[in-house]
Amino acid sequence: MLARSGVFLLWLMHFLPFRVLVWIGNALGLLLYALAAERRRVAAINLRLCFPDMSDAQRARLLRDHFKMFGRGLIERTILWWSSGARISSLIHVEGMEHFDAVKGKPAILLTPHFVGMDVGGQWIAQHTDTVCMYANQKNLYLTELLLKKRARFRDQRLYSRQQGLRPILKGMRAGMPFIYPPDQDQGIKDGAFIPFFGVPAATMISVPRIAQMTGAKVVPCITRLLPGAAGYVLTFYPAWENYPTGDDIADTRRMNEFIEQRVREMPEQYFWLHKRFKTRPEGEKKLY
Q1: Which of 204, 139, 132 is nearest to 165 (CA)?
Q2: What pLDDT digit, counting tens, does each position of 222-252 carry?
Q3: Which pLDDT score, from 0 to 100, does residue 155 have?
Q4: Rounded CA separation 87/193 (Å)
C-alpha cells in the first residue's frame, strides 16, 4: 500500500513544470542526506577511496551535491515514466548522434555506467531503436513490474532478468538490437575479476569484451549529464572503441574502468556513490564497509 501511494504521488508530480521538479529533487536529496545515514556512510567511504587527495571539506561538499543529484534522478523519473515522448525529447540535447546511428541495426553494446542520468539516456534510446537489457528484481513485486512496464513503454524493449542469463541477450543482439549495459557494479567475481577503479581493486564483470567477441558487437559508451536548473540533459554518445576486444579480457575490462573513471572526474557529483562498489575484497583484505 505504501509503495502504491508513493507511486501515485510521483504520478501527480509529472504534471509539474520541469523547474519545479528540479527544485523538489534537490530538496528530496538534502532530506535523504540528513536521514539516510547508512547510505551516506557508504558514499563517504567510496569518495575517500576514490579521491584521497581531496580535503575532507571538499569530499563533504561533493557528498552533499551527490545526494541532491540523486534526489533529482528519483523525482525526474516521473517524466520518464508518464510524460510523452515529445516532452522527454525536448529536455535532452544529444551529442555524438553519428556514433549512435553508425551501430543502429547492428550488434552493439551501449555502455551506460551508473550515473544518475542513466535512465534519461535509456528512455531517449528506447524512442529511437529496439533494445535488449537486463534488470535486477526489486524486493517489492509491484515495483519490479512497474519498472519493467515504464522502461518498455516505447517501441520493442526486451528486458530479461539476470537469472535468465545471457542467451536471450545474445539472440537479440544478433538480430540487430543493441544491448544497453551498465557494467560497473559489484556482483562478485564469479564471472569477473579484480580490476582497479580509481586505483582500488574492484570486483568487475569481464562480460563486455566477452559479449563483444561472441557477437562482433561494437562498444559505444553513452553518458547522460544533468544540467543545472531547468536546462535539461545532455546525452553524449562516444565513438565506438577501436581494436576492441583484443582477446585479453583483463586488459579490455581495465580499459572500460579507465574510461568510466575519466567520465566520473568530469562530473563526480553525478556518479552513483551510494552503491557498495568495493564490497567484494581480494582474499585476505579487510572489509571496507
Answers
A1: 132
A2: 999 999 988 999 999 999 999 999 999 999 9
A3: 87
A4: 41
